[in-house]
Amino acid sequence: MKNKNDLKQVVKFQGEFDVSHILKSLEAIQSQMTKTSAGKTFAGNIQNQINSIVTKASKLQVILGQGFTNTASISKAKAQYQELVTQMRIVEKQAKKINLSTNQVNGAMAVNLRGADVEKYSRLTKELTAARLELGKFEREKKKIFDATQLGVSQNFTKELSGALQGDKKGFKQVFDNEFKRVQEKYTGKTGFDLNVGAQNDTKTHQRLEKIRKSLAEIKKLSENAFKDIDAGGDVETIRTKLVSEANQRGFSFDSDATVDQVRKRIDLAVEGENRLTNLSNRRGEIENIRNAALQRQASLTTRISTLTADTNNILLQGTRNLQEEIRTSGREVGAQIDSTVTSMNGLFRETENVASSQQKFEKAFDNMKERIVLIFSLKTAMEGVRKVVTDTYRSITELDKRLASIAMVTDYSLSEMWGQYNAYSSMAQELGQKTKDVISSSALFMQQGLDLNQAFSLSTETMRLATLEGGGFEQATSEMTAA
Q1: Of 37, 103, 328, 477, which has the highest C-beta tally within 10 A?
Q2: Which residue would you say has higher pLDDT here, 203 or 325?
Q3: Would you list the DSSP string of 267-336?
Q4: pLDDT tens for residues 148-186?
Q5: Which of helix, strand or coil describes residue 341?
């Protein structure tokens, strides 16, 4: 059964459906999102939506290209287009509001870098790794930064220096002062010779050490001479007594029965103590320089690591923000494209609906006209009058020219353009055995009723066929029909 919405002729979509530029922009967004800190799941979801959009757009392209045979199919296509727009809007919204979190900067954000930033980030990370390795090496080596053998000090002292390396200057100085005091007390106790020269940083300490050094040098020489005298056969007791006396006069406290060997050993030990104190005093500046150089190296490495870390984090942060803004900008741009396309497509759908509506009205009027033509030609008496009118009208070319001119007056066509249609009228007249002027006359009557050239030509054809079947003319029948 014929549906009231059906159309006899296919109505073409009144324009071109093209969303290729939008699809290109959406694919660009997807490309931007392929590798981001938003994650593979998010990127995969965007890709699936774009794939669906492409599929729906392709199907709609086919539907619109085929045209429409009823008004319901236009509404359905329009609904499909709205569904397509809705899905495109979803991708647009996700792009415009994408948030590549920058709350905590970390290496995972490196996937957001593009172009020259990738190479710069790679270089910075390599330099940062190298700096960290160097700092790690320093941390391992700082325990041995003070070489006891090279400095001529005890292992315990160098350990204490290493332990105080990263402390404040006052704490490091205290370690040194403690060692200076410990050496004084140790050798004073072992030798009985007073090596207490006070704090190392005292301005008089050097003078005291110099005095002690000279005194010990004298007594040591006396000790060496005493052994030479004994070896030469001198009286041992006399030599011993004299040596003990000389040593005690210079700060020792030997018992009266102390042997020459005992005296010599304690003198040597006292000299050793004085040498260690002098060495400590002389090495203090060197030790402080070692500490300062180490701290400077450590500070330099720490500063470099801090700078490289800041630069690395900054490029990650800025690169992520740049990519985020690029994607959001792309989202805004595709949104503008969608807006423009929606406006255009809505207009094209309205035009298509208007064409379909006009065609429905024409087809209805055409069907009514055919019924009236049949009715007119069923009246024999009226047909006799029609044949008489056909015989008496349009006898010459002048009449034909006037009739074409009358058509030009009520239409947008010029007289020359109407004469250009003469072959079409003539062919139709010959096909059905009618006179050309009669066909033109019939068409003119229909056009005077407001129909366009094609519609009048079509109705004239139908009228002519029916008139031919009745065996007569149709001009008068047309006039009576349009007046009915």
Answers
A1: 477
A2: 325
A3: HHHHHHHHHHHHHHHHHHHHHHHHHHHHHHHHHHHHHHHHHHHHHHHHHHHHHHHHHHHHHHHHHHHHHH
A4: 999 999 999 999 999 888 888 889 999 989 999 999 999
A5: helix
Distance of CA 398 to the CA centre of its chain: 80
Does pLDDT of 306 surpass 90? yes
CATH number, span 6-108+322-359? 1.20.120
Q: What percent of the chain has pLDDT over 90?
A: 37
Query: Is there a contact between 308 and 141 (Cβ–Cβ < 8 Å)?
Result: no
Question: Among 272, 480, 297, which Cα is nearest to 390's?
Answer: 480
The identity of residue 342, as a single letter, is V
CB-based contact 77:30 (threshold 8 Å):
no
* Residue 11 DSSP code: E
pLDDT digits (tens, 9 = 90+) for 96-109: 888 887 777 888 88
pLDDT value at residue 472: 59
* Residue type, position 238, single letter: T
Query: What is the model's pLDDT at position 412?
Result: 72
Identify the burial level of 205 via C-beta atoms within 10 angstroms of its C-beta, where 0-12 means exposed, 13-18 middle and 19 or more buried. Answer: middle
Runs of H (alpha helix) within 232-259: 236-249
CA angle 171/172/177 to nearest 5° reads 95
Q: How far apart are CA 163 and CA 158, in angstroms?
A: 9
What is the structure's pLDDT at 365?
64
Q: Give start-end residues of each CATH 1.20.120 domain in the chain.
A: 6-108+322-359
In eight-state DSSP terms, residue 13 is P
Residue 448 token pair: 């005077």
Phi, psi angles (nearest 5°) of residue 251: 115, -5
Degrees, nearest 5: CA angle 236-238-240 = 65
